[in-house]
């Protein structure tokens, strides 16, 4: 009899409380939910055609793959909270995705999200950096650091991270209000106080800025205090959306400068992709 009581006591003490959800509570009271944050960079996953995923990097230092069908998270990496987790460049290269964050160049498997390679870049940030833009070639990483009055361009070996070249380009118009973005191998800057948009080919032997009036791309006298937003176009290496004071323009980047592609003010996001077929 005592043996049966001990066995019953063991069974009772082995049980633990179990919690669950009713069907109509799913999504409302889940204990674990995943988010990615505010998207700053986005590229199509080139491991399949047509692309089944969009790879994004966010302001919250998250790298993730989202389904193009329903927006579900296929995979997600929460990166470091330091500069090593703040992605400056996101590039889709066939079955791999490449990121540059801080002094780290990383390659990821686009399907499994596995880290393939991590290279430490031999670079110390310039003092007083206002913005940073990164460009990538087959063999080099190009870091463009904007400081007041000049642009510091550092070229590094992609396979080893070693510094190859260092150049300072005088640009007296560059200041804390100038907005810049790198599109493929070109740096684009908007300076409202001058009413100009500047372009710089980062891979040129002796790079120098060229300029053209904002009016040439349909931005007439926006005002020096207007908000400027430069937005890359996923899937395109030659288009940029320039938004000034709520007016949005899709521009095409040529060797000779920028050309107006589409007027996007008041249009849906799908119009951006349609406009990228402009020759």
Describe this structure in words.
- By secondary structure, this protein is mainly beta.
- It has a domain at 36-119: Thrombin, subunit H (Beta Barrel).
- It has two helices and 20 strands.
- The protein has helices at residues 2-14, 270-275; strands at residues 39-44, 53-58, 62-67, 73-78, 87-93, 96-101, 104-109, 115-120, 131-136, 140-147, 150-157, 163-170, 179-183, 186-191, 196-201, 210-213, 228-232, 239-244, 247-254, 257-263.
- The protein has a four-stranded antiparallel β-sheet with strand order 1-2-3-4, with no helix packed on it. The protein has a four-stranded antiparallel β-sheet with strand order 5-6-7-8, with no helix packed on it. A four-stranded antiparallel β-sheet has the order 9-10-11-12, with no helix packed on it.
- A hairpin with a 2-residue loop joins strand 5 and strand 6 (96-101).
- The longest helix has 13 residues, at 2-14.
- The model is unreliable at 2-19 (pLDDT under 50).
């Amino acid at each position: 009899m005592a043996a049966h009581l001990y066995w019953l006591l063991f069974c009772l003490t082995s049980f633990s409380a179990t919690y669950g959800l009713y069907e109509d509570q799913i999504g409302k009271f889940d204990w674990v939910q995943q988010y990615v944050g505010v998207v700053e960079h986005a590229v199509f996953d080139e491991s399949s055609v047509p692309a089944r995923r969009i790879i994004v990097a966010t302001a919250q230092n998250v790298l993730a793959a989202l389904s193009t069908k329903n927006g579900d998270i296929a995979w997600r990496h929460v990166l470091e909270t330091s500069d090593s987790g703040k992605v400056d460049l996101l590039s889709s290269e066939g079955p791999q995705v490449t990121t540059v964050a801080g002094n780290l160049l990383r390659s990821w498997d686009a399907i499994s999200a596995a880290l393939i390679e991590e290279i430490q870049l031999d670079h110390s940030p310039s003092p007083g950096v206002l913005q940073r833009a990164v460009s990538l070639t087959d063999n080099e990483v190009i870091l463009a650091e904007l400081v007041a009055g000049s642009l510091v361009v550092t070229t590094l070996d992609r396979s080893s991270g070693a510094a190859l070249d260092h150049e300072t380009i005088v640009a007296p118009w560059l200041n804390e209000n100038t907005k810049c973005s790198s599109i493929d191998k070109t740096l684009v800057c908007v300076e409202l106080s001058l009413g100009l948009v500047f372009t710089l080919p980062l891979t040129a032997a002796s790079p120098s800025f060229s300029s053209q009036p904002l009016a040439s791309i349909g931005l007439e006298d926006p005002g020096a205090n207007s908000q400027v937003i430069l937005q890359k176009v996923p899937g395109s290496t030659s288009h940029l959306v320039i938004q000034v004071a709520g007016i949005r323009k899709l521009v095409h980047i040529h060797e000779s400068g920028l050309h107006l592609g589409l007027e996007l003010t008041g249009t849906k996001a799908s119009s951006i992709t349609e406009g990228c077929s402009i020759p």
